[in-house]
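User: Hey, my collaborator sent me this sequence without any context and asked if I could get a structure. I don't really work with proteins. Can you help?
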Amino acid sequence: MKKIILLIICLIAIIGCTPGKSELFKETDSFVESLQTTYDSYGLLGGSEFAKTTTDSLYAITPIGRLINVKILKVVGNEEYEELRQVLENHYDGDTRVNKVYICEAGTIMID
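Assistant: No problem. I've predicted the 3D structure and written it out in structure-token form, which is a compact way to encode the shape of the chain:
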């Protein structure tokens, strides 16, 4: 019985966390798709005119060349960026359009 309760709590926590990133996934997916269908590149200086911010103002997504930059718009530590990197890496696992998800020197996430 305790295992079932623990399992239910874990499932609720997982399901509860997913909607918060659904808009982030929607926006990054849109940029990944556009680099396959619409744009060869967003240019050397980046596509700042194409930049998106999630409605919760937590993430900024900006295409730069053939990369997609994801920045957390609040002060966070390296742990939060590593967690976001892992979440995005899991999201794009098996997607042949994405080569790598990594933390760049500027401290933001890049989707290649």
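In plain terms: Residues 13-18 have pLDDT under 50 and may be disordered. You can pass these tokens on to your collaborator as they are.
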